[in-house]
Batch of 2 targets.
Target 1
Amino acid sequence: MKKRPLVVVTRRLPDVVETRMRELFDARLNHDDRPMTPDELATAVREADVLVPTVTDRIDAALLAQSGPNFKLIANFGNGVDNIDVQSALDRGITVTNTPGVLTEDTADMTMGLILTVPRRIAEGARVVPDDHEWSGWSPTWMLGRRIWGKRLGIVGMGRIGQAVARRAKAFGLSIHYHNRRRVAAHVEDQLEATYWESLDQMLARMDIVSVNCPHTPATYHLLSARRLKLLKKEAYVVNTARGEVIDENALARMLEAGDLAGAALDVFENEPAVNPKLVKLARQNKVVLLPHLGSATLEGRIDMGEKVIVNIKTYMDGHRPPDRVLPSML
Ligand code: 8YV
């Protein structure tokens, strides 16, 4: 009988996914409600055939140098693979896969929800529960937010998620603008009525709301730098459901604190799972909305991601190329 591969999963997955994994593999599942420690990850790559990491697990060259003779596959539970040194893995004959396409709509829903909410949530004095636990009665000038209908939305990164955000935002009456490494196909631009900006600087200076939807790569690290953030209008909002590393968080915090930006909503952070204490303080001052990386966090989406992980592992173990193999050229 063929030996079942030892598969180490770094975080708890939906029950239906874990049940299937136990049926198919020698599954070692981490049910502690915390990330695995570096020592635990080192033991995993030393002993396992397959590792299933999530976004906060750093799979770098130093860890991969400790991998054992059986370790051949990193089946990432997630679309973004910036947590993995893909080139080092490939140099060691280790295949990397991810879970593309199944979290697009959920992440776009969350992004659109933040685009709609933030200009109203960060209205002056707006509170979920007023401090005095009773409201001073409705007034025409009470907690005034900002209209988004008719405003300009600048999307940084027009891939699957960026385009899904554009489809939603168009339906809400926003004017769609985007900056991307490459211009998208003309028919896509036409469908979305989207305006391409070759210059990110020029786009940022003219937008009312900016949505970050690009992957984190060496080229996009601090793409929204302190210099670029200063190009934004004071009444502009920033929404980030992509990767925290794309924005210079400290620069953003300084602008929010100084009132040089109307507000922001962040679902991702530079040093996850830690959150910049300056942002936490600003959240208490109602100048920023913070979420703990919930963009794709639906039960259906997590199950779809888990099923893609299982297919990638099974395909690889059957001696075939996994459908979601990641190559450095794709990043
Ligand atoms: C996932 C994400 O939840 O898939 C991604 O790239 O950022 C999230 O939507 C996360 O990766 C889970 O590991």
Note: The CA atoms of residues 9 and 29 lie 5 Å apart.
Target 2
Amino acid sequence: IKSIAVLTSGGDAPGMNAAIRAVVRTSIFYEKRVFGVRRGYDGLIEGDMEELNTKSVKNILNLGGTFLKSARSEEFRTDEGQQKAYEQLQKHEIDALVVIGGNGTFTGAHRFYEKFGVPVVGIPGTIDNDLFGTDYTLGFDTATNTVVDCIDKIRDTASSHNRLFFVEVMGRDAGFIAMNTAVATGALDVILPEENKTFDDLFGEIERGASRRKTSNIVVVAEGNKLGNSFEIAEKVKAHFPQLDTKVTILGHLQRGGAPSCFDRVTASKLGLAAVEGLLNGRADVMVGIVDSELTYTFLQQAVMNKAQLDPEMLRISKILAI
Ligand code: F6P
């Protein structure tokens, strides 16, 4: 391998810049050329890339977002799109790829590897923490700290007015953000995509809270839950308990921004370095991750096909401690 390209794809996540920096500097350390591709796979298809040097990535370690920009590419899902991307790699004499992103990013990367045999290594970057083969994805730590900060503030006002707040957090298919932040903020209840919670269950929890004369109540709602969006849930709860003063806050995209936490920066640095060293040691079609504090490489297909599982212990903790 003489030349490596790096791109970020899918939803951005704090820590992506730190990972790009690690990929660039590790490549240069091993005397390889390194290219930054803008706008994910769309940029790859269009040849929107430039060679980077150590200075190109100075002062980005601490920045949220991704300086390479990101996109969810429709065209890369097609044979023509993949062919164009391959031609661009040939044109720029790039012989390996590091892709930073989540599920969709790795699905595309795996197909690309199968078709053209270009060695590709993935770095897990998504605030959702929903990838099999790693305990952490870049951005999760920062995003959950942001959520905790917000919920703490909401609790101040909830308490002053004896209100019940439904706080909706991101997580289209996974409840990791919701689960962790519910425990970290002492939420009365959490509504997760992974569970089949009913309205009766929820009403029961709220009644328990009321019977203990709690002055403020927070229910954390994961975006992808099966009961409905947080406004619908709040409305049903209000219909059942008309005396309750209910409010809804949707935290939305603010969860994706902000300076990466120390943990995300360190993890990004480890994974970026390991991605390049993996490529140079002959790894391909894998995602680099951290499992039980050890660096691991998981085949992309496995990372994509298996579902990351919520820790049942976290659910137990949240239930017991919310009494
Ligand atoms: O995958 C990360 C994520 O933030 C999800 O939690 C959320 O459902 C989705 O991206 C939102 O995507 P977009 O920014 O494209 O609206």
Note: The pocket of 6-O-phosphono-beta-D-fructofuranose is lined by residues 11, 102, 126-128, 170-172, 223, 256 (CB under 6 Å).
